[in-house]
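Practice set, problem 2.
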Amino acid sequence: MIEVWAHPVLSAVAALAPDAHLVGGCVRDLLLECGAHADWDFVVPRGAMALAREVADRCGGSLVPLDAERGISRAVVGGEGFDFADYQGGSLEDDLRARDFTVNAMALGRDGALVDPTGGRADLGRRLLRCPSPAVLDADPLRVLRAFRFAAVLDFRLSEETLDALPARAPRLSAVSGERVRDEWFKLLETDRIPLLLDALRDSGVLAAVFPEVEALRGLEQRGFHHLDAYHHSLLALRKVDEQAYDEAISVTDFSDALEGHLGRMLPGGVTRRAMLRLCALLHDVGKRVTQSVDADTGRISYRGHDKAGTPLADAVGERLRLSRLAIRLLHKSVRWHLRPLDLPEVGRLKARHVRHYFRDAGDAGVETLVLSLADSAASGGPSNTPQVREALRRRVGWMLDWYFGDGRRQCVPLVRGDEAAALLGVPPGPRVGKLLERLLDAQVDGRVRDREEAERYLKRIIP
């Protein structure tokens, strides 16, 4: 790996500081030969900030101080980041032993010699994620969540000793800033490894620390459609997004490419819609804790209104994680409307106006909520959720996705504008005209009104 030091910036670092070492994720990725690598990270015994400034000056870059107290700065050259830090401890080996995981605790000198005091290279070969010692988890509570993120991104398994060390430390995650938790959580959600890690996330206490709203669902008995309590149902719904619902949605629509493109779209904050869908699945039933009721005569358990009651709880999660306004709105609407696809008429009786009303209410969360409904149903193994009910839902979701990605949305422009309708009918603009235009749109999308002349006649006919 000595050839990496031929990089122009690395060559400048070697000339300016012969005792500098590459460390951390970039060394890990070089050893994995995975092509892309983390930003370049260097450590030196002392003087890291001055070195970063010299490197930036020599290479025509800019300097970004990151943490003056710990002597950390970044030189940005050609769009790449090169971070410099002083040893954290009395020596290079002390610095490495204090890092989060052994695979991130290796250093590479300019002579190509690998410094590996914790056995990181061997763990790479075993595809094992292991802390150098449990004490490193105490240095930063976020490392408890980061363990799962690295396990997902690298496709590594967590060592038994690391897993055993997590539950006692997981509660401290609640004290970590929302932004830091968000970044780690969504790096995990952007992978397809959630189903494989979900049990460990639960057993370690990480889920409870990050999402106490979901933890509150433990033991809430459900009947009818459900075979699990509300807590385990929510976890299974998250699992079913990737194990079943996504593939089902792709299979029932003629617009599979459009659906994939939609879910792959990035929201503000660097979060994809598909990752948000996974979060929506986890949180879709959070309102059940505050809506549970039991009929005194029959003993029947119900959660009437849990969809609406869950929205402020979902909003609170979004605010706590510092999600963008658009992401919070998507989460809010998915929780609010996740039952609607189950309640609509079956294909054959389903009208375009029903679908228009659904997308009018669910807005830009409408597509995600349809996929969520499939995951919700797949996670419901009660006697009421028969194969016929499941098949009817699949057909309905396919019909609605075809409407959305096909011509449906283009039909949702009134043939007569609001001001034109007011003038035509001799009424002042206002809510009354808005309600009339809503009825006109229903007639348009159902094919009962096809042009402006028919639209004007329709408006005159329906005005009270």
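Problem 2, part (b): a different protein.
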Amino acid sequence: MRAYCQPSDLMPVELNVEAVHHRPAVIVVTAHGQARGCRCPEYGVTSRRVQSNLLR
């Protein structure tokens, strides 16, 4: 039996997907988080500061 999934099954609900582009060997997903802040796993304090932007 072949399994099917929706694109939403592949992305966490916390992400806003802005665009998806595909090329023969590459899929590029442009997304950003929905939350205004995030809790530090080490100190437990919520921060709204953007530390960096990363292109992967």
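Answer key, part (b): The mean pLDDT is 76. The chain is about 0% helix and 40% strand.
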